[in-house]
């Protein structure tokens, strides 16, 4: 399926109307099916679906990459059935967690059946010596602008990227849903694009608790977002050992948790 399509539109600018076309992103129903049984249906951009399957499986606590035996995307009249086959142990775990949900692009909790599940404590970030110079944080978020081709075309999708001090942006993913975009990125990283523990995830969207949960599930130590995080996301990041950076723009950024991973020349403390 195509990731975008041109649509006729009537634009009003400078006091007059103008006919033309506008490229809009595709939004397709994608069913994630495990061992023949549908687990979730998400509205997503029909690209990088194997990454989506791997990332979703890991961040939802269903399966590690090693427990996934095969992934097949089957195009159907109403959408795509992403057929994922799991090893026996993961299949049993998935059945225990199974839920039916229809996830609109703005929501990451549809179908959650308990407050405990929605606000589950994230995995602790493994201890390491990974550090980032402060000026390179600005360079990383600036580099993200060059890895959003679908956004540049449509102005209607979220972007994510994985960045390392040595190589810069090594992989990027886009989607109409911010959670989908992040799952696709995580899927690409754990498939071999990079070492999750030795880089930072870059986000064009706001950072909420479910984004923190996904990052810690993948073992990513630093999240850098161009928007502000939610209060709950900050508390969760602090508990898990995740360095959470928000409002990362060309002029600067704000560190909300675990500033020890950011190398600062002035050694100023975060209030």
UniProtKB/TrEMBL annotation:
UniProt-recorded Gene Ontology molecular function terms = sulfur carrier activity; sulfurtransferase activity
Q: What cellular component GO annotations does this protein have?
A: cytoplasm
Compartments annotated for it: namely: Cytoplasm
Q: Give the signal peptide range.
A: none
**Keyword annotations:** Cytoplasm, Molybdenum cofactor biosynthesis
Which residues are responsible for catalysis? 107
InterPro entries from the UniProt entry: Cytidine_deaminase-like, FdhD
| One of the GO biological process terms | Mo-molybdopterin cofactor biosynthetic process
Q: Looking at the record's lineage, which domain of life comes first? A: Bacteria
Q: Which Gene3D superfamilies match?
A: 3.10.20.10, Cytidine Deaminase, domain 2
| UniProt keyword annotation of NAD present | no
Q: What is its main location?
A: cytoplasm
This chain's function reads: Required for formate dehydrogenase (FDH) activity. Acts as a sulfur carrier protein that transfers sulfur from IscS to the molybdenum cofactor prior to its insertion into FDH.
Homology family: Belongs to the FdhD family.
Q: What is the official name of this protein in its record?
A: Sulfur carrier protein FdhD
Species of origin: Pontibaca methylaminivorans
What taxonomic classification does the UniProt entry list for its organism? Answer: Bacteria, Pseudomonadati, Pseudomonadota, Alphaproteobacteria, Rhodobacterales
